[in-house]
Amino acid sequence: MLTAIISAFLVIAGIGAILGVGLAIADKKLAIQKDEKLVALEAIMPGANCGGCGFAGCADYAAAVASGKAQPGLCAPGGKELADKMGQIMGVEVKMEEKKVAFIFCNGSCEKTRKVYEYKGLQDCNAASILFRGDNGCKYGCLHLGSCMSVCPEEAIYRKEDGTLAVDASKCIGCGKCTKVCPTGAIRLIEDRTKYVVACNSHDKGADVRKLCDVGCIGCKICQIKFPGSGFTVTDNLACSSSECDEEAAAKAMEACPRKAISARR
Amino acid sequence: MRIIAILLTYIFINNFILVKFMGLCPFIGVSKNSESAIGMGLAVSFVAGTASAVCWCVYYGLLVPFGLEYLQTIAFILVIAALVQLVEMVLRKMSPSLYKALGIFLPLITTNCAVLGIAIINIDEAYNLLESFTAGIAAGLGFTMAIILMSNIREKLELKPVRRSFKGVPIAFVSAGLMALAFMAFDNSLLANLHLA
Q1: Is there a common fold for A36-90 and A193-266?
Q2: Contact A30 B79 (CB under 8 A)
Q3: Top-tier CATH class for A193-266
């Protein structure tokens, strides 16, 4: 009995060992010369495989850069540091795009907004969106079902105590996956240095916004007219912020906003 | 005579894909264009042929003397896996474009039941070494023929007006079923008529 077990073990292990040694030799003999630049590029990639650069993964992007089909600097997780390193390897000057992070342009929560019906289906924003564009009265706002949370590769989107969602800018790598999955377009990428943002996405007229939401922008233009330099401009019934702004004026505009729709980041 | 009979048997009468329904995964997966289909077919032929010969040696040289016939599946899979690795290295070196076109289906030859199937059939049929090798090559050629036929059909189908619900894989499955039906015409009477049986 024992000898049968031992012989079985030895025979199979022997076959495995012989084949293993054979393969190791073949691997050395048949090794291919990889492009040195490609090897160097692959080594410094962050390995998040988020796809934010538009390629199938870090290795794919590295190959594209090495063959000259893509520019360094598209990698959001790697940021400027990585872009510089890639530029050094490739021997080219790199123009780095500004760091972008996701931001949810909606402050609405259960207490602050009105619903038009009670949604009890699949807990997914796109599923809810099929039914009359979601249960919110406001068709521009966040549906709070967290589709963006589930696609985020870095778990940078979290749920606050009042049930609303928020982006942790320090974790966000700016890959933009959440912006693609969101059916209402309430989550978008903004420049990370933007300090004051109008957290509303509604282009409805002021009176309509008032009916549906306590914190939505009504396009009253107080921020634009009373605080020049604050960077806020109202177009199509919605104020938009700018990263080029006088921070003091913007802070005052935030105080003055009758709807408290302006949020300070950090 | 017997060699020719074995060739005919595994290419036509017992075609691995269309009659025995083994190795269907790459048959559907790699048959989108004929170039990679030929590459896949040749890779499978090579692996099936060498695996048959090596497995025969392993079986009669190692397993039978030690009375370990019951380990044939494990031993054969070891051999096949190593051979597939070898083919992968050779392809990566010789033809990077084919290596890329075959993609995941190349390592998946390891789990292609056609290869393990022919190795086990060789033992069941008590073939000798030369016959085993021939049967392996023949099984691979049968696979190659089927996958090339399929890829040509699918290339034509791309240009035909196919209902949207049938486009792509569904119509490929329907075509494969019809091809299998056609291959039922080959049976052992073919060998008898050629005086090979």
Answers
A1: no
A2: no
A3: alpha beta
Which of A4, A8, A15 is closest, CB to CB, to B78?
A15
Domain-wise residue ranges, chain B: 2-192
Nearest chain A residue to B84, by CA: A23
CA distance A17 to chain B (A): 10
DSSP string, A55-86: SSSHHHHHHHHHTTSS-TT--TTTHHHHHHHH
Report whether CATH 1.20.1530.20 matches the domain A36-90.
Answer: no
Between B181 and A61, the higher pLDDT residue: B181
Every domain of chain A and the residues it spans: 36-90, 98-192, 193-266
- What does the alpha-carbon distance between residue B190 and residue B182 come to, in Å, rounded to a whole number? 15
CB contact (8 A) between residue B85 and residue A23: yes
Contacts 24+ apart (CB under 8 A), A242-249: A242/A194, A243/A190, A243/A191, A243/A193, A243/A194, A245/A195, A245/A196, A247/A195, A247/A196
Contact call for B66 and A19, based on CB within 8 A: no
Tens place of pLDDT per residue across chain B (197 aa): 888 999 999 999 999 999 988 888 888 888 888 888 888 888 889 889 989 999 999 999 988 988 888 988 999 999 999 988 888 888 888 888 778 777 777 888 888 888 999 999 999 999 999 999 999 999 999 999 999 999 999 999 888 888 888 988 899 999 999 999 999 888 888 888 888 76
Instruction: Say whether residue B57 is in contact with chain A using an 8 A CB cutoff.
Output: no
pLDDT at B135: 94
ipTM of the complex: 0.74
Specify which residues A213 forms β-bridges with. A113
B160 touches chain A (CB under 8 A): no
Taken in order A132, A138, A140, A141, the sign of the CA dihedral is: negative
**Statement: A98-192 belongs to CATH 3.90.1170.50:** no
| Separation in Å, CA of A135 to nearest CA in chain B | 33
Instruction: Among B62, B89, B90, select the one facing A11 at the smallest CB separation.
Output: B62
Q: Which among A8, A19, A32 has the least Cβ separation from residue B82?
A: A19
pTM: 0.57
